[in-house]
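--- STAGE predict ---
source: upstream dedup step, 1 unique chain passed
mode: sequence only
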Amino acid sequence: MVAQQVAEAYRAYLGLSLDDLNGPIAALQERLHASDSPDDYKRLADCFSLSVKSRRRQGIAIGPETVVALPAWKLYSITGAWRQAVDSGQGVVDILVNAGRMQQALDILERQLLPTAETYNLPELIFGLRSHRAVTLAYTSDIPAALAEIDSLSGYEPTPEQAADFCRQKAIIEALAARQRPPAR
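--- STAGE serialize ---
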C-alpha cells in the first residue's frame, strides 16, 4: 500500500523507530521540537491515518495494518492538529473495542477525546464522540448509561453522515440491550 510505504520513508527520514512512535508521547514531542522539519511529523501522521482508513474500508478493523492509528493520534496531538487527533483517537478506540478492551476505549473517549474537542472548540465532533461513547458504554454492559447518552443526543441536528452513524450506534446499543434482557416467562 502506497500510504504505508510513504509513511515508512518519512519515519526513516525523521529517524524514528517503531519504539519511538509507540513510546512516551513526551519523548516524541521532544524529538518534534528538536527537529528541523516539524511539519514532516504531521505528514507522517497523515500517511498513517490514510493507511488505517484505507484498511478499514477494506474491512480490516484490527491487526498489524491498523495499529498505526496510535502513532497517528500521538503525532497529530503533538503537532496541534486537534481535529485529526480526535479522528485518529476514535480509530484507536475502535481498535480497542474490537480487541475487547472496552474500559481502555471508554477512558480514551472520556479523558482525552471529548476534552480535546471541547478545549479546542470542535463542536462538530462532539455529537460523534458522544454517540461513540454511548456504544462503548453499551459494550461495557452499562446499558442504562448508554441509552441515556444516546437519548440525550436526540435534540441535536446532525449532518446526514452523523445521522447515519447515530442510527448504527443506536442499533448496536439496542441489540446489546436486548441480549441483556431476561427471557420472557
